[in-house]
Design brief:
alpha+beta, 8-stranded antiparallel beta sheet, Beta-galactosidase, Chain A, domain 5, globular
Length: 674
């Protein structure tokens, strides 16, 4: 691979009168006011209350200069926080800690855990985010840094940051020129060193780890433009890479890695666009459908009730606990999505695009988790709440989400159809169902990122509200290359909505055929009668060899507050504030049983109900599910088998139900009459 040349020494020190990278002096009153705004006040106070003594001790005495994964990140996060606090409050203690964080970051001889050809460090997260943090610190700290201090930071960024950002961006554009990506032998990454990076120039090209070095290289190029001759070339490469990556967003703004990784990725794309516009007057702020992508994030929010129960901590790697989502900011957590929607992107889109719904999201939806949200938010931007048209959505990547609203007590039904993507699980046709403030059908959080860890099981079909054939799920990889995409596809073949209802059929046959070539059909139809009735129709056919069929319904019990009971052809999942009853019928002999995943067995943390049918070449199982608030009775909906399908009738709550499902011929979707 072409080795990035060491950049030339800047022609002159950075001018203190240049426009700010993200904001100008005129914006400071607005940003200061945001620190007192109820939207950000608690978040800001936690930053002010950070333990300066503990951080100082960590930087001075505990930090390891070969620990890039957690120690370099913590140093960067200390700098992010203290530099902005100093800019706003002029607190000398924050300035001293910011300078110490800079000093210790510069002390690292290398800034990341990856390497190309055994020589060039590859920057995917630490060298990239670190580069941005240091350049922003120069901007924020201003005259509090001497010319000599600024020069030392710039020299380090040019020597250890920019080449590390350049190398992966170049390698992903020209993978045939890559000598070989691997793990930096001097970095403390033993938990991951067994992973093969041989195909990463291709794999990472379609993931969030492409845009982070892309954006960081572009921001550095803007900072050094006109002072370092190579900066124009860096900028051209970064813009080319960002443009190529933009195609991984749908035309509606949908993103395949899940809403948590959407936030990380889209934030850095926006940071690059903002710096590019402010410093070069080049406008790439419409590179993707930014208003649409905020709507994608909005669709993936589903707040639940917070009973303040402590969840068990699980380590991802040594020193790194897996995050938990606060119930008030709960999400449709397909794949590895383990974090709430952050307000930063929405705040930026509201300002740059004048988008009223983005301002509503920035103000009312999700969590303030990043300092960038506080920087971008402008309370003067007009706001408008989402309308009825957004209650039902089929995203361009074939994920379907239907709801009654965005409040805690509202209902959300989400179907994971569509194709593969980095950070996915083996979860095609799985369902998440939340009603009356409770997760009722669950998609597990905090699955392991390393296949040798027991919680890798949470990535597999067995841990989802999905179907199994002969007790096995659809195709998935073995984790030897990380959390990359599988080959599994599902496809929405029918989707319709009407007043108070939604129906969708998704075909996942291909994904199961990859592990069992006898599979002829695997299809799921959902009928959602708002607010609280969901009908599942699962159809499976084999070619010649009979197979057993299982339909699983996962309970949310990570707080140990769920109860699961089975009686006859029914199961009940009780949560503190709501319950769901599932009533099953089948074309053949089928039974309902309760079981649990073989994880945390002493607490029964992962219970599920399973409808299982014996060996046959054809299976058709209908499960009628009703939800009610705590203490309220469920209606007794009747399931009738007809010559051509099924009929569901009765009354539940205030809802009169009369639904007919006519089974499709072959792979055709069933006809649904509501």
């Amino acid at each position: 691979m072409k080795k990035p040349a060491r950049p030339a020494v800047p022609s002159a020190p950075a001018s203190r009168k240049k426009p700010g990278l993200l904001f100008s002096a005129a914006d400071l009153p607005r940003i200061r006011a945001n620190t007192k705004d109820p939207r950000f006040a608690e978040f800001w106070q936690t930053r002010l209350n950070a333990d300066i003594a503990a951080d100082t001790n960590f930087l001075a005495n505990e930090l390891s200069l070969t620990n890039h994964v957690t120690h370099l990140l913590r140093a960067q996060q200390i700098l992010d926080r203290t530099a902005l606090i100093y800019l706003i409050n002029r607190d000398p203690a924050q300035l001293a800690l910011a300078k110490l964080a800079i000093r210790r970051m510069l002390d690292f001889p290398e800034w990341d855990s990856f390497i190309e050809g055994g020589r060039q460090i590859l920057g995917f997260q630490r060298a990239t985010e670190g580069t941005v943090a240091l350049l922003l610190a120069i901007d924020y700290l201003g005259d509090a840094l001497s010319a000599a201090e600024v020069k030392e930071i710039e020299d380090n960024v040019l020597a250890k940051g920019v080449p590390a950002c350049y190398a992966p961006v170049y390698g992903m554009k020209y993978p045939d020129r890559v000598q070989g990506w691997g793990w930096n032998p001097r970095s403390e990454v033993d938990d991951f060193r067994h992973l093969s990076l041989k195909r990463w120039p291709l794999i990472i090209n379609a993931t969030n780890l492409k845009i982070i070095p892309t954006a960081s290289l572009g921001i550095a190029a803007c900072y050094f433009h006109g002072r370092v001759p190579e900066a124009a070339g860096w900028l051209e490469l970064a813009r080319s890479s960002a443009k190529a990556f933009s195609t991984f967003y749908g035309s509606d703004g949908a993103y395949d890695e899940g809403v948590s990784y959407w936030g990380y990725t889209t934030l850095y794309l926006a940071l690059f666009a903002e710096v590019l516009w402010r410093t070069q007057r080049i406008d790439d702020r419409n590179l993707i459908n930014y208003p649409g992508t905020v709507r994608y994030a909005l669709a993936n929010t589903m707040p639940t009730i917070d009973d303040h129960r402590k969840l068990t901590d699980f380590q991802h790697i040594k020193g790194w606990s897996m995050p938990t989502v606060k119930p008030a900011f709960d999400i449709v957590n397909h794949g590895d999505s383990n974090g709430a929607v952050d307000v930063s992107v929405a705040a930026w889109v509201a300002r740059t695009h004048g988008d009223k719904l983005s301002q509503f999201v920035a103000r009312e939806i999700g969590e303030a988790k990043q300092l960038f949200g506080l920087v971008f938010y402008d309370p003067k931007c007009p706001s408008a709440a989402p309308g009825k048209a957004l209650l039902d959505c089929r995203l361009s990547n074939d994920i379907v989400i239907s709801r009654t609203g965005w409040k805690t007590e509202d209902t959300v039904l989400a179907l994971r159809s569509g194709g593969p993507g980095n950070h996915e699980h083996a979860d095609r046709n799985s369902v998440i169902f939340k009603a009356y403030g409770e997760r009722l059908f669950h998609d597990p959080f905090r699955a392991a990122y390393v296949a040798k860890q027991p919680r890798w099981l949470l990535r597999l079909t067995e841990a989802h509200t999905a179907v199994l054939i002969n007790g096995k799920g659809h195709q998935y990889h073995d984790g030897s290359e990380g959390t990359n995409a599988s080959w599994a596809f599902a496809r929405v073949v029918d989707y319709r909505t009407g007043p108070g209802w939604m129906t969708v059929t998704s075909d996942v046959t291909d994904a199961y055929q990859l592990v069992n070539d006898q599979v002829a059909r695997v299809q799921r139809t959902l009928v959602f009668l708002k607010p609280d009735v969901v009908i599942f129709l699962d159809r499976m056919a084999m070619k010649d060899t009979p197979a057993t069929f299982q339909v699983r319904f996962q309970a949310f019990n990570e707080d140990l507050a769920a109860k699961l009971n089975v009686s006859g052809n029914e199961f009940t999942i009780e949560r503190p504030h709501a319950s769901v009853v599932g009533r099953m019928a089948s074309r053949g002999a089928a039974t309902v049983r309760a079981d649990r995943l073989p994880l945390e067995v002493e607490t029964n943390m992962y219970p599920f109900a399973e409808v299982a049918s014996p060996e046959s070449r054809e299976h058709e199982i209908i499960t009628v599910c009703t939800a009610r608030p705590e203490g309220q009775a469920h209606g007794k909906l009747k399931i009738t088998s007809t010559a051509k399908g099924w009929r569901v009738t009765g009354k539940h709550g205030g809802l009169e139900v009369d639904v007919r499902l006519t089974s499709g011929i072959g792979s055709a979707a069933p006809a649904v009459q509501v």
